[in-house]
Amino acid sequence: MPARRSAWEAGVNGAALPTTLPFASATEVYAAFPEIAADLTAPCENRPPLDFLAALAASATPEEALTFAAFALERRLAIWWGHECLRQLADRMTPRDLALMELAAAWVAEPGDGTRGAALEAARESEAKTPGVWIALAAGWSSGSMTPADQPAVPVPPHLCPRAINAAVLSALARVDRPGRPAMLARFARMARTLAEGG
Hints:
Blueprint: H1 7-10, H2 26-32, H3 49-57, H4 63-72, H5 75-88, H6 95-109, H7 113-124, H8 131-140, H9 160-173, H10 181-196
Helix pairs in contact: 3-4, 3-10, 4-5, 4-9, 4-10, 5-6, 5-8, 5-9, 5-10, 6-7, 6-8, 7-8, 8-9
């Protein structure tokens, strides 16, 4: 896979990405997203988010570090992190996945109703929930309404976006042969930390 500058060095097509966490502690993440308690077995701890992320990565259920990252990172940064995780496994993605990933990346580069709607509509047209579909849904559920433009608006519940990111990353990880999964999982967790720290 050809090397390229990282998102935190170049942004996305020149657009700067946020480099700070929106939460000061894991407790704040749990308070902002009560639904996370259904996705993690680890009890909430009042410690910095990156410390909690590291503890999860070193636990018996390290995949929970990825789930936590999806909720803890700033939304736009989280979607880009999910996109980059999938890009690490580009050879395991279908052409449809890759096309949907590009729609998610387009929203990260230019957040707005146009790019968000394009990602959401394309994801809805997909028959199966693949990694690419999930990351496009994450972009589509980043804000605004979860219904088509010609229907009454229904605000997106805040937890749907991070859950879609989590589903994208974990379903992509499932495509890795079992012996290679721990190393790839650890790489994904390191990527989240690096992005959160500004690279």
